[in-house]
Amino acid sequence: xxxxxxxxxxxxxxxxxxxxxxxxxxxxxxxxxxxxxxxxxxxxxxxxxxxxxxxxxxxxxxxxxxxxxxxxxxxxxxxxxxxxxxxxxxxxxxxxxxxxxxxxxxxxxxxxxxxxxxxxxxxxxxxxxxxxxxxxxxxxxxxxxxxxxxxxxxxxxxxxxxxxxxxxxxxxxxxxxxxxxxxxxxxxxxxxxxxxxxxxxxxxxxxxxxxx
Length: 212
Prior knowledge:
The chain has 7 helices and 7 strands; from the N terminus they run αααβαβαββαβαββ. By secondary structure, the protein is of the alpha/beta class. It is globular and about 50 Å long.
């Protein structure tokens, strides 16, 4: 399918109005990602369709569990900007901090921020374990953390009433069985547009954590 048509139809399927600005930014994001990928190895996906569906649309699924309003969000292990950058493009009222320890990937993220003048995005070139005195309403990740590992590594960055959102495949139930009693979770199953795939968004909240 032609690239622009795929973007427009996929955004509509996700309930997002495909404005000219949004389409232009995703098109430019795709171009920059492929250009930088030749030197920086940002993604294993090569075709336009795979990048649009499995990176852009997959990232936008997180908005299904994002309440309306202005929230402070961190994207842990952002890599090439997923899911944080697509979310920031579509929901400019969200304040999103991209936490990425790799120097090369952080350089790419800063380039994208400058290119699109994304004033709602900040890049932190750090491991999440080293992020101190920053607290967020919501923490998202597409990195390959187990739920338990994510809580251990990043639980300190959530506000008292904050929550994590992870994107998991069909084996998520094995991870849920290992969670402690103070961890509350909700599973939202959604279809990924233009892919025969179901994603499971796991919303995780730690009860009894110290207030921040």
